[in-house]
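Narrative summary of target 7.
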Amino acid sequence: MTQSGLDIFLRNPPRKIVGKKTGVLCHAASVTASYSHILEEISQNSQLELGAVFGPQHGLFGQTQDNMVEWEGGFTHPAYNVPVYSLYGKTRKPLKHMLDGLEAFLVDLQDVGARPYTYIWTVKHCMEACEKNHIPMWILDRPNPIAAVPMDGPMLNEDFYSFVGGAEIPLCHRMTLGEIAMFLKTKYFPSLALEIVWMKEWWRDSLFNETGLPWVIPSPNMPALSTAIVYPGMVLFEATNVSEGRGTTLPFELFGAPFINSESLKQNIYRRKLPGCVFREHNFIPTFQKWKGAYCHGMQIHVTEPRLYEPVFTAVSIMEAIMQTSGSGTFQFNEPPYEYEREKMPFDILAGDSQLRNAILAGKSLKEQKDKWREAHAEFCKQWQDITHYPENRT
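Modeled conformation, tokenized:
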């Protein structure tokens, strides 16, 4: 069974953090193997002192259901009598007064293996603040739940940095949060005192259901491992007028819109022979978000072989199929704003630059795009080899 950074940390807290007033960045999924939350564990541990609590997007316990819904902190935790601060509202980087008196900063977040998932970029902001204020940071590493899924999608162009992408990494990247943090330290925060509590008994060619750890939803629209597997590609639909299934019980696994011709779409997708998945016609009526209350014609993605599945290539292939079968002018890319970006196209900041959107609109070969991604991944992996911590396979 995989041992998470949190479980290892609690068994033997590092001497450098014992007795130090500690800020903790966490959320609902910050639990031990026995489902005990990190805040409860720290508050009951005589070696540790809780000084402040910070929460990422969706709130400390996942209370903000929809996407891009801010929440405000600035209150005292009723059980632990420490301040609680939001890092997804008016403030996204800890301010100096939030860090006053803290002697250490602890991070325990469950990432999902996709660059647009905002938690790692909240961590990047915290790294910057901790470096500036000379506060050492510990990161308790957790599995990348979809690490076995192939690296996929464009690299991020630095000109398109945003809150859904703050480093030049692939869209589906195979790294853990701890490894990305080490990459960020090397590139941006060399003087930050950063320590990673690495997992034990975890290997990269694994899925979360092989770890033995409990799945606690890391955000409201990430209910299951099957959601996380399709998310790195299907998140791109957030930047279009096609529903990505928000407002249903299968977000990101369902997609659809009133203007879709289901039969034509189905035939178009079937002809593509996309690996590792099958598609099934499934219509739905979203209860919130895009097309709320409207009858959407669509499909569900069923991933049958995750290690063959290409989440980003599959998603853009679906987009192309919708454009080819739904009539002129029906499929559209959304205009800004999106995730605090008010100028660049939402699709572009999710994808990594404007190249993919322009290729889709021009009807250029998606296979050529995929070949370019793979060349870029090979170059990235040369850098990554100096950062990677975990073995590819069970040893």
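The first strand starts at residue 21 and ends at 26.
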